[in-house]
Amino acid sequence: MRRSPPCLTFLWLLAFGAAVPAFPALGQESQTLAKAIPAPAASPPDDGNWVMAAKNYASTRYSELDEIDTNTVRDLQVFFTFSTGVVRGHEAAPLVVNDTMYVVTPYPNKLYALDLTKPGAPTKWTFEPKPAASAQGVACCDYVNRGPAFADGRIFINTLDAQTVAVDAETGSEVWRTKLGDINKGETMTMAPLVVKGKVLVGNAGGEFGVRGWITALDAGTGKIVWRAYNTGPDKDVLIGDDYKPFYDKEKGKDLGVGTWPPNAWKIGGGTVWGWISYDPELDLIYHGTGNPGPWNPEQRPGDNKWTGGIFARNPDTGQARWFYQAVPHDLYDYDGINELILLDMPWQGQPRKVLIRPERNGYLYVIDRSSGEVLAADPYFPANSTKGVDLKTGLIEYNEEKHPRVGKVVRDICPTAPGAKDWNPSAFSPKTGIVYIPHNNLCMDWESVEANYIAGTPYVGANVKMYAGPGGHRGTFTAWDPAQRKKVWELKEDLPLWSGTLATAGGLVFYGTMDGWFKAVNAGSGELLWQFKTGSGIIGQPISYRGPDGRQYIAILSGVGGWAGAIVAGDLDPHDASAAKGFVNAVSDLPQRTTKGGMLYVFALPQRR
């Protein structure tokens, strides 16, 4: 007898033109799960397209294409380039749908459609959403955008001034637009949307401006709001009801989104959703993180500050919460919980488990049962000293009292720093190796808490920070981690912080970029550098792989330094001001000598055989 995928899974796979995956016989499951594999229903067979930033709902960022492999990659060469005309931080993933590539820029969030059937991929159309210029003044960490999403013949983008826009993928004409946030309160939008069951899922940014975080579902056909779940406040606002069944006692109780804050502080408490969302069609649950509480100064907000710094599982139709896990109760260091959530099926203590993998900003790689929210493992992939570990029985992280921030005192050598061991930039997972590939920082910081006063639309931080290189003196690390064995397989040390995403391929390769502009391909098994190319500007974008109209495999990456890590270049900041960019400038004061502003798409391929 074979398990049949649920009806929803079947319809979803048909909608994307993919074959329904074969599910293992019940008696064969433990044998099939000899190592971690992507959740089958969330990762249909690769059709050569790249229709969402994370590649699939499992967020593997893995391509099954293998024409470019460990033997041929040395011959990789530029196939075409395209200038976006914008010189802020380019964090987006390009999309490819059949014969068209779609690229969205940082503010002013121009959307380009490039014709892949013609030499040089000329522009088919350009869509300009014209977001409000004043949004630039409330963008925390550069004017970035993390990419579009495609579904049902439409491209969906978020604009910096907190609007979501649907654009006809063929013509470039606007279909609808919905305003979701208020820039006068400091709300912006930088995340890549995700389309699930006819709903466009988006969240706000602005945790450093004292906004109230939320995730919203829009009807993909009309743009009308279907539901909105806040991440602070009473249960009715957070969409916590009868379906809510958290694993840990610390997540249980009435209206914790109010009671774990000082009076009314939850109204300006952060918890924004500016990172990644994953979806399991089999369990019919979406997973999203919640950002830091506001302000950074923890003495101004005693309590656990729910529901910030954690992970929600929600019903995509209603937004109702199924479970929540708070990785950093009463966050002390700006350790947002917005990083990627990789959905895997893997053996655990002799039994198959449905898990999600997340390398958190706090320096621990979490393995969590995605059905229940139980933490199965939380192992350090970075030498953290701000905490001492995670108690798996209670789910609680233990803070190091010696590194606890205090008003009027400078606490030195806190590791990791505020952007975390790893910020937003996503990892990749290869089912061929069973390894998660993590691009991350190696940074520590000095921290001084100060009093913050809330004024709508202005920074609400309450800390002076200075960042610098961590143990060993290098500022970035690329780590290969085996989640089943709970150990590091290999790592590469990089001089500068790593701020790009990662791509793994069936050719046995992993691609990532550096802040001084090197785009690299390494052996997925050993980490050996096999190929690199110097782009015109630092790389903080997300690499993708696709099959072109000619049947060949291509690799694409956006180059254009910026973001929080590269604000010193993109924003022309003074390298002598150690406090600039909330202290990040001190860690990368040499970056202006290593790279310059840019905004360029690079597409690579092997030489065409004659």
From TrEMBL:
Entry superkingdom: Bacteria
Entry keyword annotation includes Transcription regulation: no
Spans traversing the lipid bilayer: none
Record domain Pyrrolo-quinoline quinone repeat: where: 50-376, 486-555
Residues making up the signal peptide according to the UniProt record: 1-27
InterPro entries referenced in this protein's UniProt entry, alphabetically: PQQ_b-propeller_rpt, PQQ_MeOH/EtOH_DH, PQQ_rpt_dom, Quinoprotein_ADH-like_sf
Biological source species: Azospirillum argentinense
Family to which the UniProt record says this protein belongs: Belongs to the bacterial PQQ dehydrogenase family.
Cited Pfam families: PQQ
Protein name: Methanol/ethanol family PQQ-dependent dehydrogenase
Keywords attached to this entry: Metal-binding, Oxidoreductase, PQQ, Signal
Names of required cofactors: pyrroloquinoline quinone
